[in-house]
Protein: Sigma-54-dependent Fis family transcriptional regulator
Organism: Ramlibacter alkalitolerans
Amino acid sequence: MRPNASGQVIAQRPAPGGLRLAKRALLEGRELSASVVGPELARSWQRSLRAGLQPAGRMPGAPHASGPQLARALELQRELVAHARPVMEFLAEQTDGTESMVILAGTDGVVLQALGDLQFVSRAERVALRPGATWSEQVRGTNAIGTALAEGQAIVVHSEEHYLERNAFLTCAAAPILAPGGQLLGVLDVSGDHRGYHPHTIGLVRSAARMIEHRLFETRHDARHWPGLVLRLHAQPEGIGTLAEGLLAVREDGALAGANRAALAMLGLDWPRLARCRVEDVLAEPVPLLMDWVRRSPSVPRIVHVHGGAALWVRMEAGRPIAASRGAAPVSTVEEAAAVDALAALDTGDLALRATLQRARKLAPSAIPLLVQGESGAGKEVLARAMHASSPRRGHAFVAVNCAALPEALIEAELFGYERGAFTGAAREGATGRIREAHGGTLFLDEIGDMPLALQTRLLRVLQDRQVTPLGGGKAVGVDFWLICATHRDLRAQIEAGRFREDLFYRLNGFTLKVPALRARSDLEALLATQLAQLLPGREVQVEDTLLAALRAYAWPGNLRQLASTLRTACALLDAQESVIGWHHLCDDLAEQLRPQEPTDSAGAQPEDLRSISRDAIRRALDDAGGNVSEAARRLGISRNTLYRRIGETSA
Ligand SMILES: Nc1ncnc2c1ncn2[C@@H]1O[C@H](COP(=O)(O)OP(=O)(O)OP(=O)(O)O)[C@@H](O)[C@H]1O
């Protein structure tokens, strides 16, 4: 098995002898056998031949950028280099011990950064993999970096597929990195000893290139500076916010300003059409409607319709000018109203939650560090966002970081930022880091109980000194933010077990706020009404009586997240003329979980009952998903991590 040029796996790798014969055929002007040499490789060999290169001969001296030339190239590509760095470190960790290098090259094929193990190459060959070396096809013939640039797509070039025999010791996988407008910015590559070839490397490299593109898009269209709309799209609501989401930037006048590749695929666009299109050309919903949605409730996912195609879920973010340009009301009045509404909007009648909200309202102006505790999906982040919106800091950023979602090396770079001085003599910073982005605003650290101990020590230092020092030893910078942390874990038990620093616990826990689990709340009906009004504005929709009773009795292992995803599915299935949500509007597995249970008062259910309901639901979902945990989690409307945790809890 081997991946073809676009990274898909094709069945057979040609024998080296076959490639040698094919290369001879190329030199003799004969046709290349398509079964030995794929179309991308054949085109690349032809280009190499036309460039006057000889496969076996001595390579004419390949140009190598001088120190000042490299510094200038790095300066020109500052944004790309800064965003690529943490992703490259992550890739280098994944490929550690595999005798390979992670390389970032510019559009001219010049190596800008290289990380990893150079021991697998001879001293003479090392220089070719260092920053400054050139890997364009023109100078080195077919190779993953040069060929990915020439073809504009991901490619694997293995051993003798390299045009020059002297490069046959390498196996390389490379993927282009594109700007949000489709312009080629550079190439990410993993090159290693040809004996260490692994078919999954290309997938890893392509995902890493997507991560860089995602960060570039988010920086260029950051809602604080970009005066337009950002649409996050996916066929399923759970896909929004993940690496698989489509990203679309829309100018205030409706013209499309940027996208990622996932959005192009979802909308049936290509890069040239993107530049000519307006949002009305691709979506059935006009810009004023989108603007209205984003002003009224920006974080609520909605359904939009692609012309002649699928329905997609969308979550929108607006730049400040749009968010503030509501009618004739002065901005301060609008912000004031939003501030009051943010916490009040969460109060749907449950007394325990109301008590939490009242405390939150009093604490919001104080900037005392808060710890929000509650089960996964219970609404901890939503509460933290509402507190920020109700605080004097609401004019600044709310920065959320999930400490459980990223590998340790990435969270460190993400939180603290890093210097690019490590690889050039230039003085400007590489990436600011999320802590500094939260300056003046609120830093929300989700799943703080999962933060690795080494990072806890660094975070403690930041909280004590109120200064952050970027990785790579830059200057300490003063920071001022409101810290809100959240966890589903018992942090005291974590301290006992030696997994959480006690001194950090006291620093971040100025006050604990508890968010009740959905099954313990008494306001399910009010929640249903509020969410249905948001999902189907202007429509009067009820829930059928027997279904409502079953929903009340259900244990809701995924809490509000699961409720929201259940209602989104139901609304998507509801016909325009229907006004009652019934059993047939649920996905099958939830309907099955709900049916066998007699309607009982969930608030009166004993913990053991709830545990067994939860256990049954999980078992059924796993059975239905054929044991696939990701699929079972999707069916339950909870994350994979939560499902693993619940499996542990319910089998305890
Ligand atoms: N008050 C609410 N009204 C409607 N939906 C809500 C509300 N609070 C939360 N949700 C829904 O639940 C989802 C999860 O909420 P949130 O991220 O705040 O939970 P969490 O407790 O932080 O979860 P986790 O611990 O898994 O990070 C939200 O995306 C939203 O769909």
The longest helix spans residues 201-220. Residues 1-12, 320-340, 422-429, 597-608 have pLDDT under 50 and may be disordered. The radius of gyration is 27 Å.
